[in-house]
Design goal:
The complex is a heterotrimer of chains A (about 525), B (about 350) and C (about 400).
Chain A lengths: L8 H5 L4 E10 L2 E11 L4 E5 L6 H8 L7 E6 L2 E3 L4 H6 L2 E4 L11 H6 L5 E2 L3 E2 L1 H15 L14 H14 L4 E5 L7 H16 L3 E6 L2 H7 L2 E6 L2 E6 L6 H9 L17 E11 L5 E11 L3 E5 L6 H8 L7 E6 L2 E2 L5 H6 L2 E4 L3 H5 L6 H5 L10 E2 L2 E2 L1 H14 L16 H13 L5 E5 L7 H16 L3 E6 L2 H7 L2 E6 L2 E7 L5 H10 L15
Parallel strand pairs in A: 3-10, 3-11, 6-9, 9-10, 15-22, 15-23, 18-21, 21-22
Antiparallel strand pairs in A: 1-2, 1-4, 4-5, 7-8, 11-12, 13-14, 13-16, 16-17, 19-20, 23-24
Helix pairs in contact in A: 15-16
Chain B lengths: L1 H5 L3 H41 L7 H22 L14 H27 L4 H24 L16 H4 L5 H8 L3 H19 L1 H11 L1 H6 L4 H27 L11 H11 L4 H23 L4 H9 L2 H19 L20
Helix pairs in contact in B: 2-7, 2-8, 2-11, 2-12, 2-13, 3-4, 3-5, 3-11, 3-12, 4-5, 4-11, 8-9, 8-13, 12-13, 12-15, 13-15
Chain C lengths: L1 H39 L6 H14 L1 E5 L2 E5 L3 H25 L7 H18 L5 H30 L3 H21 L22 E5 L2 E4 L1 H18 L1 H11 L1 H6 L4 H28 L10 H11 L4 H25 L5 H14 L1 H8 L12 H6 L10
Antiparallel strand pairs in C: 1-2, 3-4
Helix pairs in contact in C: 1-13, 1-14, 2-3, 2-12, 3-7, 3-10, 3-11, 3-12, 4-5, 4-6, 4-10, 4-11, 5-6, 5-10, 7-8, 7-12, 11-12, 11-13, 13-14
Classes of the chains: A alpha/beta (about 525), B mainly alpha (about 350), C mainly alpha (about 400).
């Protein structure tokens, strides 16, 4: 199609490197892609914008040979091709950097790069010196200096992403697909990756950049294609559009980009964490002397790049991990060595980051899940005897009040959509009198509607006088609803800033560097 | 020396060390032989688990191979009673070689069933192994009962190599030559196989792909490694080692088949693999340790220790020595786990993404 | 609507289980025909019919003859034998099934069964002359405690060191054999016996309800059938059962919900050992009355088949136990009449499991269209923890 693309002389010049025409892919019950057209030119960074579930990933899976389209064709340099599988795609110069990195942590950089396209010495043995030489050469050309013998699991996320890009370059990729590449990066790392992408584009590589972050797309893309519900709903040039326009295209209605968080009225200190130290799974203090306080009626956000000790901090606060030092005081009572059950009984609720792993038992019915943390107490059981009627009544109430869409309470939690699963957890954890609410990435992977709903519920709890501790690697989320924001870097809180006046770039810099740059805080918060 | 032995209490310890060294120098060949089926079983487990498939059916694979190796060799002898015996290759006869091939083939066929259940059907892998153990034990038990009535002749066994005395008589190291060279073909090959597999794992393309498939199959698939095919190939090739282990029982170490004769060796092999950190050479070392524990009971009967130690050791009931390898396994498992990390994808069936 | 949904999936499971049993019988028949030249000296295409009819008669007392055609109920003996044989299978199946529910694979039911037998026989010998109302309960108690203790060991090791229960329990099975061999040929050996065995348990024998010599229905059978609803109630109607099932389905969620996975693992393995130990005690006090040094039994392994047949559900386990009990009870007559060795039952068991695991074959053969498989969901937890990178937390 490309019809809505405005005529620009420069674009007429280059023939498309890749064309996808009328791609349709149906899965049982859904049309994931419905006649999608996409055209990517050589040396172009082409953004593919859409919400979670809009069909971006399916389209790329079709391109990468992971899914076979029901209709439509793919043209490479004007020739129709049929991509059988990833190997086939790679051989044709199409490479993909997945959102969840496809790297083997126990292998070295060189081994990861080699895998699947091994340099050989003879028929059996690997030629690692040749691999090292090529990694060095590519690194020099594109400006990243990777140690070929480093174990990938020991690298930071930003560097792992560079290994992924290196993998693609090693395979002589001409068309590089990046699936949500910035989801796990700090703003600074993002800037660095964008620089790499621009350099690649300048050398003639075509880049498909998948994202749902509007400002990123506007910053890096040469052209933007927006997908909604499996269809292309528009194409734009970054100069001719803005965030509001793109958001409306992407969501299909005018969206409020920020929740109205209203005024907060912080009262007495509810949670006091002092000099907390927590050891990680591999030993070593992952939380290295952290102190902060959360007051009743405020949302205290903790921002930080994943892996800087937030997981260990949350686990320690929630009694899932024993701190190696320091103290945690809840409403004047020392709870440092309390377990999850003790905290639950002291009116602390917790929404974990991984709802499949922690928050729910997917094979259990909604009834059992809705009482997962209360099952042992009245009215759901009397002594050791469960009260099935009381449990069923509670489940029916919860799905009614929190709008959980399901055919019935005896369906298993695994049958619910992600948004409804999270609403079920919110129903369970929010719907009681609380002193402290701990939220770890409460909206990860959810659609805009569910995110809005959950953010409103969080603010409602705050207004009811609950202290809220919000931990998220999504800086946007933290900025959007927190009253105060602490930045965590390498196990320490490096600064606390006011949530309403905080400057995104400044917070991002703190996340990335721990504060060596200029700290641009709005109103100073509490000390570190 | 004797002065050390006379120290109260501590002396017993010195006597024990002295006795263990003597046992090792005298019984080295027996220890290595007993380690062979365990180490081979571990290699079978290694091939499976390094590519992400749990195999607790090694025991069943071994017993099936032990039976078929013996049975096929016996049938050949029955059909052609005058078997020529080679005087160069461990006294090999056609019957023995055909039996060995049958054992290996059986190991591979049973492994193919395990591969199909675990990889294609995506049945629970521990259940798949359990099924193999039950069927193999049941079927060989059934067959040996109906066959023993017609009692076929045994095909005999491979004769151990006799190392030159010039080597075995060397001071201090002679016993090592004896230990590794005074062996049948299967036992003798074990160390070499372990070394080769260890090198291949880290230096070859196959090893790189196998490690990646066992750790992060999806990552391997996205760069064009066929996870399903590699798993199938590795599991089936692993059957060769189980087959060799089975043949060890009836063609190398012994000459006849009894129901249940593998007696848990396939399970000890699993423990050796864990203890050896999923490395062929590590597993080989662990297998030697288990074999040393079980050879102690033999040693006490054949070369009774003297002095205070002898009094103590002979007073301990036989059954304790028989249980020792199993107890050692438990103790090692309890101690080794936590430091020994399994391949990340082990036990998880691979769901291929492509929905064509 | 929900009830209908449940019963539909239940019907699907029953169909698959029934289909698996049927296909296993077909495979068994093929094996018999193929091996008939060795058994009878010539290829006998009808050996399987002879064998299965004998099996049926041995298990139920129903004799079917064809020339002339007649169906005849011979005696209660077959039914009694089947019930007596089913008793340890039901208890053992509950032991293994309970483990499954907690995400544990107790392959050690065999060892716990043996230790239960040893405990019961030891107490039985001591109490051989005591009044039976004291001797029987005490001997049972000692037996089940011995089994519980032997289940506690792998539970504790799993919970606190991460040693995977599959390998540990298999090792303990071998150790149990040696312990029995030592105890029976040593301290417990009966004076004057021609082979190593313990004395008779005397008054600690279980009461006999009915039956004739060689086919006695002992009162332990009742215990097995009482245990079924109890275990069901604990699993599905008590908070402890909810905790056990949660740990089995998702150990991380259990920890998050304030349950204590380590304690639950130890508890479940101990209770599992208790049930297997009870099975061993009943077998010794009800059937054997003494313990030989080389006590040959496979009850603990057969219990795995039973638990899987019943999909770890207590009621399902009851039917699985009855089925296997019947097969075992009928097997001797099959060997006598048809010459097919009783080991055929081992093969049948394994093949039933094979078809349960490879349920796609069953679905294909019988055209069963049901989404849900006949598998035990919690096995995912068992298998994914294999190799034990670390001990469970909490």
């Amino acid at each position: 199609m490309t019809a809505p693309t405005p005529d620009q002389p420069a674009e007429r010049v280059a023939a498309p490197a890749l064309e996808m025409r009328g791609i349709t892919k149906r899965y049982p019950g859904v049309v994931a892609n419905d006649g999608i057209d996409l055209e990517v030119r050589p040396g172009e960074i082409h953004a593919l914008l859409g919400e979670n579930g809009a069909g971006k990933s399916t389209l790329m899976n079709v391109l990468y040979g992971l899914a076979r389209p029901d209709e439509g064709e793919i043209l490479l340099d004007g020739e129709v091709i049929h991509i059988q599988d990833p190997t086939d795609a790679i051989e044709r110069g199409i490479s993909m950097v997945h959102q969840h990195f496809m790297l083997v942590p126990v292998l070295t950089v060189a081994e990861n790069v080699l895998l699947g396209k091994e340099a050989m010495r003879g028929r059996i043995f690997l030629d690692t010196s040749e691999a090292r030489r090529r990694i060095k050469e590519l690194g020099e050309r594109f400006g990243f200096d990777l140690d070929p013998d480093a174990r990938v699991g020991d690298l930071s996320v930003g560097w792992q992403q560079r290994v992924e890009i290196l993998k693609a370059l090693y395979r002589d990729a001409r068309i590089l697909v990046l699936d949500e590449p910035t989801a796990v990066l700090t703003p600074q790392e993002t800037v660095e990756v964008f620089a790499v992408l621009r350099r690649l584009a300048a050398e003639g590589h075509s880049i498909i950049f998948i994202s749902h972050k509007l400002y990123e797309v506007l910053e890096v893309a040469d052209r933007i294609t927006v997908i909604r519900r499996g269809k292309v709903v528009g194409s734009r040039l970054p100069d001719e559009t803005d965030e509001d326009d793109l958001a409306e295209l992407m969501v299909g209605r005018e969206v409020q980009l920020t929740v109205d968080r209203g005024e907060s009225h912080p009262a007495e200190t509810m949670l006091q964490v002092t000099d907390l130290r927590v050891r990680g799974d591999r030993g070593g203090d992952r939380v290295d002397g952290v102190s902060f306080e959360v007051r009743a009626g405020e949302i205290f956000g903790i921002a930080g790049v994943a892996g800087n000790g937030q997981d260990e901090l949350v686990e320690a606060v929630m009694g899932l991990r024993q701190p190696s030092g320091g103290s945690i005081v809840l409403d004047g009572v020392d709870v440092t060595s309390d377990g999850p059950r003790d905290l639950h009984e002291k009116k602390v609720s917790f929404v974990p980051a991984d709802r499949h792993r922690f928050g729910l038992v997917l094979s259990f019915p909604l009834t059992d899940n809705v009482v997962l943390t209360d099952y042992y107490a009245e009215p759901y059981s009397h002594g050791v005897v469960r009260d099935e009627a009381a449990i069923a009544k509670r489940a029916a109430e919860a799905i009614e009040q929190y709008d959980v869409r399901t055919p019935g309470t005896s369906m298993t939690a695994g049958t619910l959509s992600g948004g409804n699963q999270q609403k079920l957890i919110v129903a369970r954890e929010f719907d009681r009198d609380l002193k402290l609410l701990v939220l770890d990435q409460p909206t990860r992977g959810l659609d805009v509607g569910s995110i809005e709903f959950i953010h409103k519920q969080i603010i409602r709890k705050r207004d009811a006088g609950t202290a809220v501790l919000l931990v998220s690697a999504e800086l946007d989320e933290v900025l959007e609803i927190s009253d105060r924001i602490a930045v965590m870097y390498r196990g320490r809180i490096v600064d606390v800033v006011d949530g309403r006046t905080a400057n995104k770039e400044a917070v991002g810099l703190l996340m990335a560097t721990g504060g060596r740059g200029e700290a641009a805080r709005g109103t100073p918060g509490v000390t570190t | 020396m004797d002065m050390l032995f006379d120290i109260p209490i501590l002396g017993i310890l010195f006597q024990l060390v002295d006795y263990m060294i003597r046992v090792l120098t005298i019984n080295g060949a027996v220890i290595l032989a007993l380690a062979a089926p365990i180490a081979l079983g571990s290699l079978c487990g290694f091939m499976n688990e390094r590519s992400g498939v749990v195999n607790i059916g090694i025991e069943g694979m071994m017993i099936a191979a032990a039976f078929s190796g013996w049975f096929v060799a016996s049938l050949v002898v029955q059909a052609f009673p005058d078997q020529p015996k080679a005087d160069f290759f461990f006294g090999a006869s056609p019957a023995l070689v055909i039996g060995l091939a049958a054992a290996i083939l059986t190991g591979m066929v049973v492994s193919a069933v395990h591969a199909w259940l675990s990889i294609t059907v995506k049945a629970d892998q521990i259940i798949s192994g359990t099924i193999i153990n039950i069927v193999a034990l049941g079927a060989t038990g059934y067959l040996i009962i109906i066959i023993s009535a017609s009692s076929p002749r045994s095909a005999g066994r491979f004769t151990p190599f006799t190392p030159p005395e010039a080597l075995t008589d060397l001071p201090f190291v002679g016993w090592i030559f004896n230990m590794f060279l005074n062996q049948g073909p299967i036992t003798m090959s074990v160390l070499a196989l372990a070394v080769i597999m260890n090198i291949l794992l880290f230096r070859s393309r196959w090893g790189l792909r196998t490690r990646s498939v066992g750790e992060h199959p999806k990552a391997a698939e996205t760069v064009g490694v066929d996870v399903i095919k590699l798993r199938y190939r590795n599991v089936i090739l692993g059957g060769i080692f189980a087959g060799l282990a089975g043949a060890w029982f009836t063609l190398d170490f012994g000459t006849s088949f009894q129901a249940g004769m593998t007696n848990g060796r396939g399970f000890i092999a699993l423990a050796a693999l864990i203890f050896g950190r999923w490395l062929p050479l590590g597993a080989f070392g662990a297998a030697l340790l288990f074999a040393a524990a079980s050879s102690l009971s033999i040693a006490i009967r054949t070369v009774p220790p003297t002095g205070d130690l002898g009094g103590i050791l002979t007073a301990i009931p036989d059954q304790f020595w028989s249980a020792l390898p199993y107890l050692v396994t438990i103790i090692i498992l309890a101690g080794a786990v936590g430091r020994s990390v399994a391949p990340a994808a082990v036990g998880k069936p691979y769901e291929r993404e492509s929905a064509s | 609507m929900i009830d209908r949904l449940l019963s539909r999936s239940l019907r699907g499971q029953l169909a698959i289980t029934g289909g698996a049993v049927l296909l296993a019988l077909v495979v068994g028949a093929i094996v018999m025909v193929l091996t008939s030249p060795i058994i009878t000296g010539s290829l006998d295409p009808w050996l399987w019919a002879e064998a299965y009819l004998a099996l049926l008669q041995g298990a139920t007392g129903i004799a079917i003859t064809f020339d002339p055609f007649a169906v005849e109920f011979r005696s209660l003996n077959g039914v009694i034998d089947s019930l007596v044989r089913a008793t340890p299978y039901i208890l053992g199946g509950l032991a293994v099934g309970l483990g499954f529910k907690a995400g544990l694979f107790n392959i050690g039911a065999q060892g716990q069964f043996l230790m239960g037998a040893l405990g019961a026989v030891t107490a039985g010998i001591v109490l051989a002359d005591a009044p039976t109302v004291i001797a029987v309960p005490l001997a049972l108690l000692v037996g089940l405690l011995a089994g519980a203790a032997y289940g506690f060991i792998p539970g504790w090791l799993k919970a606190f060191t991460g040693a995977h229960e599959v390998v540990v329990t298999i090792m303990l099975n071998f150790v149990a054999i040696q312990i029995i061999s030592w105890a029976v040929s040593g301290p417990l050996r009966a004076a004057g016996a021609t082979f190593a065995r313990t004395p008779d348990v005397g008054e600690a024998r279980l009461w006999v309800l009915t039956g004739t010599s060689g086919h006695l229905l002992h009162s332990g059978v009742i215990l097995a059938f009482v245990a079924v609803p109890i275990v069901w109630w604990v699993l599905y109607r008590s908070t402890i059962g909810f905790e056990i099932r949660t740990v089995g389905a998702n150990p991380d969620a259990a920890r998050y919900a304030g349950m204590r996975p380590r304690m639950l693992i130890v508890l479940t393995m101990t209770v599992s050992g208790l049930l297997a130990g009870l099975a061993g005690s009943i077998e010794i006090l009800g059937v054997q009355h003494y313990l030989p040094a080389a006590y040959a039994t496979t009850v603990g392994f057969d219990a795995i088949t039973v638990a899987l047949l019943g999909r770890a559900n207590p009621w399902g386990i009851m039917f699985g136990g009855l089925l296997l009990g019947g097969l075992r009870a009928g097997a001797p007559l099959m060997q006598i009449i048809a010459g097919v060795p009783v080991q055929m039952i081992d093969i049948l068991q394994g093949v039933i499991l094979f078809f349960l695991a490879a349920d796609l074959i069953v679905r294909w053969v019988f055209r069963i269209r049901d989404a849900k498989g006949a598998t035990v969901d919690e096995l995912k937890t068992v298998t994914s923890s294999y190799g034990g990178s670390s001990a469970p937390r909490g």
